[in-house]
């Protein structure tokens, strides 16, 4: 009985355990154990461990079969522990799936219309094949982008996808991306993983995932529309510059084909039934834009019927023709229903040059006449040196005819205009006087990239049969004996004859760039626009802030000038205008000077605003008119500064103030007292100029220098030693100088010349190179007893 009861009891217990496990489910994984961190680990520790494990187990670097599964677990664990909410949910309920409701496990794994199963997103990590690494061969790195993608973008556009791990939106666009890339196989593609190439993503300006962008001519353009095949195809077409392909009809076909001489290029015509130019043809035109001119003929238009009839075009398949110098007969032709990119590239590469192109720049010269390589056959250039005048047209046409009938793999024919490539022609023709020479044919072989070449002038060329026969014989001799090229020289770099066309190209490029900028402004999100907006608003703030501060500064100074105008005196300013009384510098044809008195002393010196200086001229009643006029002329060019104020001090009234001021600074300033042997002579301060900084309590001193001619006396005054502006008498010390009309006129002349070097001194003052003499305090002007 006991044994019979034990079997059902064991079955019930086992069923209960199975039901409990199926109900509670338990956690599928423990993120703490996977990352190898404790439950108390900080976010910084978790992040550090995650970076190390992600690098170690990344499937691109770790070839272990289980590396992919481990990498997924590491990433999922970090996603849980890096989120405070998910981490708290796991710590409380042991749940790793954020789609489960918190709390009791009896709700199980709910997958109704609200809680989506990950299979709804076609998430590749949950499939048996795990993650799709098909994009790995297109992955771009920063160095690869700079060294390969950017240079190649000048020949073909790039379509780049910005993605990252655990980006659900990236997975949504993946099918469309693969379909577009497969359809546009001629487009170069690239993939940037933000998690591993953050530097490249920032360089491209991609701040969100997913993003799609195009790179052409080194410029980056973002795709801003819904990810659909038609939109992406149109985006690629919009990347290409305008005017790559010209539409040709019966009206403009001759104009298009005849431009070969001006553009120095073969011309390509594509005949097709579709009204829009095929994308593959546009991409080909962009890749070979430097070599060929492209046109498109829509066979469905009645305006192209004559062209189709003239060249016998088959309407059932696209036809491509190449025209060189002969516009009546194509030089080459291909026709096929499905033109492949490889076939088109080979067709273009075989027809990049005219039969006898003109050397217009160094790049063309390097390709037509390449430098000799040891592992290749020799390449020779037959060069016609001619002119562009009408008189040379017959010989030029004869040379073209000769080139078309004597085409060889090792020989290239070209011509050059002597007037446009004078240096090259003088060397090859051994012309020393640079005069215009008759046309001549030269055979040359380039030996190195530095410009060394072997050459031989063959014959003067006028297009006669004798000239052609002589050239044929020389070419036959050259095949047998290359040593007939007896001359060698260093060839100069060719002038770029199409340099003037760069202006037109620059205008077109500017227009395209402006269109892209406007498009970016209309579609960019705020995060991408923030640097540009910050720069614009900073510049506007600085600009308008300066204007506002200047306006308020001017208005405040206008108010201060009114009470000070009563205390000023006026002096004449020679040719520059009058010297009026005010502390505000004028902006017109006069200088405003204020007399420094006990009334204006505080405002014009002691309480002068920081950064402002008062330029004070020291004078006497007798020299007032002469010195003020000279002073105005010398300082007039500095009156535009709002920090300079101009005043004068009457030394007859305030001589003791001047002496006291200089005594305060006697420790740092040596003053020549101009004393005689007795030491009783008094210093004459007439003509001194003081630059006084009232706020910082220092002064700069100008000592008068007489530069006029004096027949009876000599002056040894300079800025380093003051002689008081008086010339020393040439008479003996015990005989005082005589006073006469001549001496009075000389004295007046000397006073006038005391300020001759004031302008130079002012320049040094503005530069801040003058010595500064600091004083403890400004002496009071009202306390000094006037003396005369």
Automatic annotation (TrEMBL):
Q: Where is the J domain?
A: 30-94
Sorted UniProt keywords: Membrane, Signal, Transmembrane, Transmembrane helix
Q: Which residues form the signal peptide?
A: 1-25
Check the record and name the InterPro entries matching this protein.
DnaJ_C16_autophagy_reg, DnaJ_domain, DNAJC16_TRX, J_dom_sf, Thioredoxin-like_sf, Thioredoxin_domain
Q: Where is the composition biased (Polar residues)?
A: 572-584
Taxonomically, which superkingdom? Answer: Eukaryota
- List the CDD domains hit by this protein, alphabetically: DnaJ (cd06257), TRX_DnaJ (cd02963)
Which spans does this entry mark as compositional bias, Basic and acidic residues? 558-570
Residue stretches spanning the membrane: 532-552
State a single Pfam family of this protein.
Answer: Thioredoxin
UniProt region (Disordered), positions on chain: 558-586, 711-747
Q: What is this protein called?
A: DnaJ heat shock protein family (Hsp40) member C16
**Species of provenance:** Amphiprion percula (Orange clownfish)
């Amino acid at each position: 009985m006991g044994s019979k009861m034990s079997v059902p009891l064991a079955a019930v217990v086992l069923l209960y355990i199975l039901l409990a496990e199926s109900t509670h489910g338990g956690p599928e994984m423990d993120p703490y154990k996977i990352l190898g961190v404790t439950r108390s680990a900080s976010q910084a520790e978790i992040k550090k461990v995650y970076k190390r494990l992600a690098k170690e187990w990344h499937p691109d670097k770790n070839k272990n079969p289980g590396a992919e599964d481990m990498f997924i677990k590491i990433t999922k664990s970090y996603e849980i522990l890096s989120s405070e909410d998910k981490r708290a949910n796991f710590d409380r309920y042991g749940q790793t799936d954020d789609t489960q409701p918190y709390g009791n496990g009896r709700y199980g794994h709910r997958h109704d219309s609200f809680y989506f199963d990950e299979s709804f997103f076609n998430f590749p990590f949950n499939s048996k094949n795990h993650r799709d690494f098909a994009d790995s061969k297109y992955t771009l790195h920063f160095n690869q982008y700079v060294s390969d993608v950017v240079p190649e973008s000048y020949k073909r556009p790039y379509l780049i996808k910005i993605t990252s791990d655990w980006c659900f939106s990236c997975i949504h666009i993946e099918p469309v991306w693969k379909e577009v890339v497969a359809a546009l196989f001629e487009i170069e593609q690239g993939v940037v993983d933000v998690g591993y190439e953050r530097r490249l993503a920032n360089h491209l300006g991609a701040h969100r995932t997913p993003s799609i962008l195009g790179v052409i001519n080194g410029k980056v353009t973002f795709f801003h529309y819904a990810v659909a095949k038609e939109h992406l195809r149109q985006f690629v077409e919009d990347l290409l510059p305008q005017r790559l392909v010209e539409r040709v009809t019966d009206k403009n076909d001759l104009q298009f084909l005849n431009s070969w001489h001006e553009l120095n290029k073969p011309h390509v015509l594509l005949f097709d039934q579709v009204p829009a130019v095929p994308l593959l043809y546009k991409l080909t035109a962009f890749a070979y834009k430097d070599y060929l001119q492209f046109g498109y003929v829509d066979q469905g238009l009645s305006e192209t019927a004559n062209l189709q009839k003239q060249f016998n075009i088959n309407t059932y398949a696209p036809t491509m023709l190449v025209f060189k110098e002969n516009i009546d007969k194509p030089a080459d032709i291909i026709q096929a229903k499905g033109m492949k990119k490889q076939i088109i590239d080979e067709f273009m590469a075989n027809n990049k040059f005219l039969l006898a192109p003109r050397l217009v720049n160094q790049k063309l010269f390097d390709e037509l006449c390449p430098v000799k390589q040891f592992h290749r056959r020799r390449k020779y250039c037959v060069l016609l040196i001619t002119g562009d005048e009408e008189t040379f047209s017959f010989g030029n046409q004869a040379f073209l005819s000769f080139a078309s009938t004597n085409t060889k793999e090792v020989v290239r024919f070209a011509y050059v205009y002597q007037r446009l490539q004078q240096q090259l022609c003088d060397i090859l023709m051994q012309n020393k006087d640079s005069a215009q020479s008759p046309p001549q044919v030269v055979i040359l072989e380039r030996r190195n990239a530095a410009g060394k070449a072997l050459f031989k002038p063959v014959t003067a060329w006028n297009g006669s049969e004798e000239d052609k026969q002589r050239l044929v014989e020389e070419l036959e001799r050259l095949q047998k004996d290359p040593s007939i090229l007896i001359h060698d020289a260093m060839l100069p770099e060719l002038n770029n004859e199409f340099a003037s066309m760069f202006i037109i190209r620059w205008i077109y490029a500017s227009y395209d760039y402006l269109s892209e900028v406007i498009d970016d402004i209309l579609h960019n999100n705020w995060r991408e626009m923030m640097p540009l907006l910050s720069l614009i608003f900073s510049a506007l703030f600085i600009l308008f802030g300066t204007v506002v501060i200047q306006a308020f500064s001017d208005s405040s100074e206008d108010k201060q000038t009114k009470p000070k105008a009563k205390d000023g005196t006026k002096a004449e300013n020679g040719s520059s205008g009058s010297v009026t009384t005010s502390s505000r510098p004028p902006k017109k044809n006069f200088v405003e000077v204020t007399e420094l008195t006990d009334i204006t002393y505080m405002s014009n010196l002691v309480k002068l605003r920081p950064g402002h200086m008062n330029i004070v001229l020291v004078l006497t009643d007798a020299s007032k008119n002469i010195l003020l006029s000279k002073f105005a002329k010398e300082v007039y060019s500095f009156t535009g500064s709002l920090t300079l104020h101009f005043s004068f001090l009457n030394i007859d009234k305030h001589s003791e103030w001047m002496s006291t001021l200089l005594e305060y600074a006697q420790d740092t300033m040596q003053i020549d007292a101009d004393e005689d042997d007795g030491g009783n002579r008094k210093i004459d301060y007439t003509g001194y100029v003081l630059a006084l900084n009232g706020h910082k309590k220092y002064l700069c001193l100008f000592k008068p220098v007489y530069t006029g001619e004096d027949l009876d006396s000599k002056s040894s005054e300079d800025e380093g030693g003051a002689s008081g502006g008086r010339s020393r008498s040439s008479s003996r010390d015990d005989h005082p100088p005589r006073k006469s009309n001549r001496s009075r006129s000389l004295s007046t002349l000397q006073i006038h010349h005391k300020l001759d070097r004031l302008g130079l001194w002012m320049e040094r003052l503005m530069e801040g190179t003058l010595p500064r003499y600091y004083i403890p305090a400004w002496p009071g002007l009202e306390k000094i007893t006037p003396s005369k």
